Amino acid sequence: MKIKSSLVFVGNILFLLAACSPAHSAQRPDAPQKILSPAKSQIENNIQTINGIKLQLVGVQLANSDLLQVDVCFDYPNQEDWLLSNSPDNVFLTVGQQTIFHSGFSEIDVKSDANGNHTQRCDNLNFPVTPGQDLSSFTITINQLVTSVPEQPDCAKVQGKLDSANTGIQISCNAAKGNSGIDIKGKPSNLSDFEARKIVFLSLTDTFQGPWVFTSGIK
Description:
Structural class: mainly beta
Shape: globular
Distance between the termini: 60 Å
CATH architecture of the largest domain: Sandwich
Number of domains: 2
CATH class of the largest domain: Mainly Beta
Number of strands: 14
Order of helices and strands: EHEEEEEEEEEEHEEHE
Helix content: 10-25%
Number of helices: 3
Strand content: over 45%
């Protein structure tokens, strides 16, 4: 069964993200912001190393009574464009029995070595909270690091991932009107178009699994 379902990476990338992940997305400002001071927070075990990759909880601050801001720095696994999240449920705050997904993040600093290679990146994470909520103790969980979606997909690499996972999905790359995209040429009959698109989308990025879990609180 041949099914042609196109994934376009320039004009339609927002549609693809909306189809494959929750509504909130990362925001990256033009200029680095100042890293928060942890002076008003209590941070336990603020450095976590999982599978050789170090993450550090640098600062926590309550802004405008309804927004918890958290600064996290992480070491680059390699020279790809690594991010803390590609969907809100990858990074979440736990307060008591309540789980709160992040509502956005922004880059605030990138460190490089003498050769210009990126070594560390710092981000500011936002979590919506209820005014007056007890934040004396909470945990912050970062499930994985993920690379950004490339503007020019490596079709052979994506197909290799699909084959290794035994998805049964066959793709081909195309370029039309200056846009770069992927056509789904075939898929198992029991797989919907939406499910096939989501699997292909996830295959466009690399991940580095955690989780990194931090305990903190604001008095």
